[in-house]
């Protein structure tokens, strides 16, 4: 005789009762779509390393984003891609009023009033050396001017109309500086601060760096991004950023760091938890599907649902347009 408590299958024998086994289900409003904005206003450039993704010019945003908003797209995060401009050591053009990010924020606000618009904030796309901060002569990070510059850029994105600024630079103390900057500019109650709190020095950023042309010209980012093994540091970074005024905590990358997402959900239990399914993760899911390892859609759902299971409530993913279709089917 089987013991009564041994029988679990009765609870998930139907697709509906299987869905009930998740604490939270993926919804369209959880998705934030990363978009690359070129400084060529008419750009529509295919990127071979990120299947289906393009660098978009400001003039192309209406036709690109319009159909997605109709399908239920709730939020985007913008990354500027300066293709033509002169870069310098302090990333002067990061907040150029005529630069791609600020022009795109204004355009999207005007075109799609309900869309939540976040801006990634970093200097690496705009610095001549490709690092995320301002450097000493010996090539190491000079923290105070880096933090001041990052905060200045964030405030200028908020002034342009961004609903959210999201610093990805990993400089110590930048959350506090940005929050204070927003408050001083009268925007403390008008702009959400999403911190890339636990951002690891990962091998999975390759396609992104090709997309935004931000590979460092020397060295690497291991002195500011977290070591992949650093669970304790990640927890400390999350605690620090909540204390410094972050409204949302992010973990990046996502799939190899599900334990960190779970830690974030516990350490910052009263904050929304975001995770970024980064370019290399997206490319891996596609590559595996192309190689016949699994079905693309099934695997895309499995990856994102595992992030939600771990504790994420916001998912940054290049699969967003696909999910908007898949969730309707
Ligand atoms: Zn950067």
Describe this structure in words.
This protein is of the alpha/beta class and 329 residues long. It has a single domain (25-327), classed as TIM Barrel, CATH 3.20.20. The chain has eleven helices and ten strands. The protein has helices spanning 15-19, 61-70, 100-111, 143-160, 174-184, 206-212, 231-243, 258-267, 279-290, 296-310, 320-326, and strands at 31-38, 44-46, 54-56, 75-81, 116-121, 164-167, 192-199, 248-252, 273-277, 314-317. Strands 1-4-5-6-7-8-9-10 form an eight-stranded parallel beta barrel, surrounded by seven helices. Helix 7 (231-243) packs parallel to helix 8. The radius of gyration is 20 Å and the shape is globular. The model has no long low-confidence stretch (mean pLDDT 96). The structure holds zinc ion. Residues 122, 124, 132, 168-169 line the site of zinc ion (ZN).
How would you summarize this macromolecular structure in one to three sentences?
The protein contains 11 helices and 10 strands.
């Amino acid at each position: 005789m089987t013991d009564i408590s041994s029988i679990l299958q009765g609870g998930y024998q139907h697709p509906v009762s299987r869905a009930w086994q998740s604490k939270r289900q993926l919804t369209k409003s959880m998705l934030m779509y990363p978009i690359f904005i070129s400084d060529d206003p008419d750009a529509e450039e295919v990127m071979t390393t990120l299947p289906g993704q393009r660098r978009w010019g400001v003039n192309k945003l209406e036709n690109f984003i319009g159909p997605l908003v109709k399908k239920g797209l709730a939020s985007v995060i913008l990354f500027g891609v300066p293709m033509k401009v002169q870069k310098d050591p302090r990333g002067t053009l990061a907040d150029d009023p005529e630069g791609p990010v600020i022009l795109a924020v204004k355009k999207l606000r005007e075109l799609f009033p309900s869309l939540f618009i976040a801006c990634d904030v970093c200097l690496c796309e705009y610095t001549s050396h490709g690092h995320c901060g301002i450097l000493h002569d010996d090539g190491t990070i000079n923290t105070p001017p880096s933090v001041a510059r990052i905060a200045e850029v964030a405030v200028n994105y908020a002034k342009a109309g961004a609903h959210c600024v999201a610093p990805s630079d990993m400089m110590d103390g930048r959350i506090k500086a940005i929050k204070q900057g927003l408050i001083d500019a009268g925007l403390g109650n008008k702009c959400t601060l999403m911190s890339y709190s636990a951002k690891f020095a990962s091998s999975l950023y390759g396609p992104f760096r090709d997309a935004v042309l931000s590979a460092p010209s020397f060295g690497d980012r291991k002195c500011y991004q977290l070591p992949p093994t650093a669970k304790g540091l990640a927890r400390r970074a999350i605690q620090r950023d909540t204390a410094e005024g972050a409204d949302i905590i992010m973990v990046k990358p996502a799939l190899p760091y599900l334990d960190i997402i779970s830690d974030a959900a516990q350490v910052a239990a009263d904050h929304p938890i975001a995770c970024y399914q980064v370019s290399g993760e997206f490319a891996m899911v596609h590559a595996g599907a192309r190689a016949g390892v699994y079905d693309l859609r099934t695997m895309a759902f499995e990856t994102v649902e595992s992030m939600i299971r771990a504790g994420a409530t916001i998912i940054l993913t290049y699969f967003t347009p696909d999910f908007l279709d898949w969730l309707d089917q």
